[in-house]
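Appendix B, example 12.
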Amino acid sequence: MSKIKDIKEWKELFETHILTRGYYYAQEDRVWDIGHEKDVVSAVVAGTEDYLVSIRIKDNRITEMSCDCPYAADGSHCKHEAALLYALAKEDGGSDAKPPFIERLEEEREELWSLIRNMTEDELRKLLYDLASHDESLRNRIVAAYRESIDEKYLLQMKKIISGICCNHSDRSGYVDWRHAWDFISDLIGFLHENVQPLIERGLLREAFDLTCEVFLAICYTDIDDDGDIAVGASECCDFWGRITSLATDDEQMRMYEWFTDHIGNGSIIDYMEDYLEDFRLSGFHSRPLLLKRLSDLDDMIARDEQNNRLDPTGWGVYKLGEHILSRVQTMKELDMQKEDVLKYIEKYTYLPRILLIYADEIYDSGDTEYAAAVLQKGKERDKEKPVVIREYSCKLIAFYEEQKLWDALVAELKYQIINCSQRDLHYINLLKRNVDEAEWLSFRENILQSEKDTDIRLELLKQEELLDRLMEEVKSRNSIAILDKYERDLRKLYGCEIRDIYADYVRSEMVRASSRNRYNHIIQDLRKIRRYEGGRELASDIAEKWKKEYPRRSAMLDELRKAGF
């Protein structure tokens, strides 16, 4: 078969934007299962779903291309076909050629940089002045970075810019809907980087702190239809506060600390935003006077949390108690208190599983590994009615035994973990496999496969162990098209005809009950999958034709069939 690098001008077969997207698909390793047969190369390309692509290459020419995606249904060349060609170019050892659009962009940037390098300082200054005179954002960046002093007038101007960002993205009532929420937060984050970061670099920490607080309050006081955008903005403010306090003097930190204290608990900030202030107040200041003050404040909080815990031992108070205990422990360490005092303090609260884990870690780090393991084993017995907790104890024991190379104890704990605790992946199962002989592994593997627990893990184990006949039977027994979709890639070579028929039976039964365009679309996506298998194109076409005759009044279905190439 001809090599792609020998085929001239194949990129001209595609529109520029299609070629570019195909290039990125190849870069993201979305092309898999490449197969060569005489003059035809085929592969599956992962897009919104997996698509089968075939390309015929003869005498250094591409004579035919096909893809079962909707875009290529009318013969148009799609990004999946371009992705396969880029993957073949890489496979053939050719250069990782970029699309013409990207190549032109890089050439333009290089040309621009070359021109800038050849400009004199006076020319650059005049150009920068002309640009800044007409671009307020650029002007503010220059002022923040190079003005000798920052006065209240400048800070007021910066605060007006923050207000302007709020106005630009909100309606008349001040509401920011979901379509503008991310742009709103992005502009505020951009303000921090463009206008606050230069102040930090110049050591103007009071001004930088005040403006960061202004951004945070803008987020707090704006009514936003949030989809996680607020958390991104608030976290960015915390990051900037951290940069500022790490450079601040004790007196500067005290002033900043008081700002947090003034804004916590006064009702001016909604509770979930107040959590960011509370968390930073308890972790973001490191001068000794503030560490001592933090210690005193935490003692008051812990006493209050313990009272709440007695009233409601299963509620939010338990979590807050654990958080405050951990903050106090961290503060004790920052104050360089004696390790014995820290350990005694932690021991008082080991009735909380979360603190018991920390206690075991501290003992282990002190060198008493045997006692650390004993503490966790006792914890397993004490909290045996709490499955999530005993799993955490067991995970910690496994880490201890593995690090200490206590292989017998490790194997025993791994077996306990796998049998008694829910598994999220194959990590512990594979760790056990590496630490037992083959006969013991095969016996224990069978126990896992016979277990009714962790059925999804059982499927993953069958796949990993290449027990594909049992995997196929398990997939069929589940009667779930979602599970078949997940393992189709692993099973298709050996069980293509069975998979084809399962999809065919599924789409036939589902179309009887379907009544919306969205449902038709999903069913027809599964119908297209049938075409990947031997005899599948004819079968899929027959099913589509039968639907056209049986459901002539389903105009949305007919339209979806047409768009899918049927």
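Residues 471 and 477 are 10 Å apart (CA to CA). The first helix runs from residue 16 to 27.
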